[in-house]
Every structure is written in structure tokens, then in C-alpha cells.
């Protein structure tokens, strides 16, 4: 079946289920860390290379922008709404998966910004995965990064969200349905 004949509701549902899995996993792992660890505590997982290190992050990646938490709240809200509005155009499982992962991650961190201390709209994000010589992050961040990497790969491969593949020939550009 070519990309244009695929029902958009199937892909929206697939993206929504992916987002739900990322979101639930994110919120569950954060709740587990909050219940079982003290703020600032660090536990070895794989030697010194991977540790659980419980922190509250008021900023973005690498704690950047700590004084502008509300900006990140707005960005996550806009990204989430944008993805939800765009999803009905998607006719590709890899695109649905990538967008669902970004949506689930954005909603996970947005939940922290809205409902965690010190409160709306400047709540701090629970981070706990620490890779040596790198940042401390969480499951939502993993969903966002993996989803964006998948989308970038799809774009590099010429895979369009509508299920077509863009391929350039010598004389003309053309689109084909997969």
C-alpha cells in the first residue's frame, strides 16, 4: 500500500502510544528515584561510567538557563502542541515513532516544569542518569534525543513524513511512495 493511501489515524495512534510509553516510563523512573534516593545522592550502576545521581535541574541541558525556567516551559508546550497538530499528516511508522518519542519526552519534562517544586511554571526537572564526563539527564531527555536522531536520519535518507521518499536523479527530483 503506498504512503498516500494509509490512514492517518493509525499513525497518530502509534505516535500517541509511543509518547505514552516514554511519558509513563519517565514519570515512573523519576518517582522511583524520588522515593528511593536522597537529593544529591549518587549510586554506581556501571563503575564510574554510569551512575544514578539525583538532582533537580531548574535549567535546560547542562543546567543552562537556570534563571529562565519559564522559557523552557513555554518551548516544551509549543513543541508538544506543534507535534500534536502535525501528526495527522504523518503516514510513516518511523516518523510516527520519532515524533512520539519527542512528544513523550517533552511532555515528561513539561509535567515537571508545571507540577514540581518550586511550582508552576518554573518547576525543576528530576535528573538522575549520569554518564561520566557528561551531563545528568532523565528518561524524557533520552526520548527527545533518540526521537530527534531518528527524525534527522529519516531526513538524511530522504524519507518524508507523508510516507514518500525524496530521491534526486540527474535531471529531475522525484518522489516515490514506499
Summarize the amount of helix as a percent range. Answer: 40-55%
Task: Note the quaternary state here.
Answer: single chain
Count up the helices: 4
Overall morphology: elongated
- CA(first)-CA(last) distance: 8 Å
Largest sheet: 4 strands, antiparallel
* Spans where pLDDT lies below 50 across 5 or more residues: none
Number of domains: 1
Task: Kindly report the average pLDDT value.
Answer: 89
> What is the succession of H and E elements?
HEEHHEEHEE
The neighbouring-strand order within the major sheet is 1-2-3-4
Number of strands: 6
Indicate the radius of gyration in whole angstroms: 19 Å
Structural class: alpha+beta
* Proportion in β-strands: 15-25%
Subcellular location: Cell membrane
Membrane topology: Multi-pass membrane protein
Keywords: Aspartyl protease, Cell membrane, Hydrolase, Membrane, Protease, Transmembrane, Transmembrane helix
Function: This protein specifically catalyzes the removal of signal peptides from prolipoproteins.
Brief characterization of the structure:
The protein has four helices and six strands, in the order αββααββαββ. With 178 residues, the chain is an alpha+beta fold.
Descriptive keywords:
4-stranded antiparallel sheet; alpha+beta; 6 strands; 178 residues; 49% helix; two-stranded antiparallel sheet
Write up this protein.
One of its GO terms (molecular function) is aspartic-type endopeptidase activity. It catalyses: Release of signal peptides from bacterial membrane prolipoproteins. Hydrolyzes -Xaa-Yaa-Zaa-|-(S,diacylglyceryl)Cys-, in which Xaa is hydrophobic (preferably Leu), and Yaa (Ala or Ser) and Zaa (Gly or Ala) have small, neutral side chains. It is built from 4 helices and 6 strands, in the order αββααββαββ. It has one domain (3-162). The protein has helices at residues 8-36, 69-86, 93-115, 139-156; strands at 42-46, 50-57, 125-131, 136-137, 164-168, 173-177. It is elongated, with a radius of gyration of 19 Å. The strands form 2 sheets. Strands 1-2-3-4 form a 4-stranded antiparallel β-sheet. Strands 5-6 form a two-stranded antiparallel sheet. Helix 1 (8-36) runs parallel beside helix 3, helix 2 packs antiparallel against helix 3 and helix 3 packs antiparallel against helix 4 (139-156). By secondary structure, the protein is an alpha+beta fold. Strand 3 and strand 4 form a beta hairpin.
Amino acid at each position: 500500500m503506498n504512503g498516500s493511501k494509509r490512514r492517518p489515524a493509525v499513525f497518530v495512534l502509534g505516535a500517541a502510544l509511543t509518547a505514552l510509553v516514554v511519558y509513563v516510563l519517565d514519570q515512573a523512573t523519576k518517582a522511583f528515584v524520588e522515593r528511593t534516593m536522597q537529593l544529591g545522592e549518587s549510586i554506581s550502576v556501571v563503575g564510574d561510567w554510569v551512575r544514578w545521581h539525583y538532582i533537580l535541574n531548574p535549567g535546560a541541558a547542562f543546567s543552562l538557563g537556570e534563571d529562565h525556567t519559564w522559557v523552557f516551559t513555554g518551548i516544551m508546550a509549543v513543541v508538544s502542541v506543534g507535534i500534536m497538530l502535525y501528526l495527522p499528516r504523518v503516514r510513516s511508522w518511523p516518523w510516527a515513532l520519532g515524533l512520539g518519542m519527542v512528544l513523550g519526552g517533552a511532555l515528561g519534562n513539561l509535567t515537571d516544569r508545571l507540577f514540581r517544586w518550586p511550582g508552576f511554571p518554573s518547576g525543576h526537572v528530576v535528573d538522575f542518569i549520569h554518564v561520566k564526563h557528561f551531563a545528568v539527564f532523565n528518561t524524557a531527555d533520552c526520548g527527545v534525543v533518540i526521537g530527534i536522531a531518528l527524525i534527522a536520519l529519516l531526513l538524511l535518507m530522504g524519507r518524508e513524513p507523508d510516507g514518500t521518499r525524496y530521491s534526486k536523479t540527474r535531471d529531475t527530483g522525484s518522489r516515490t511512495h514506499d
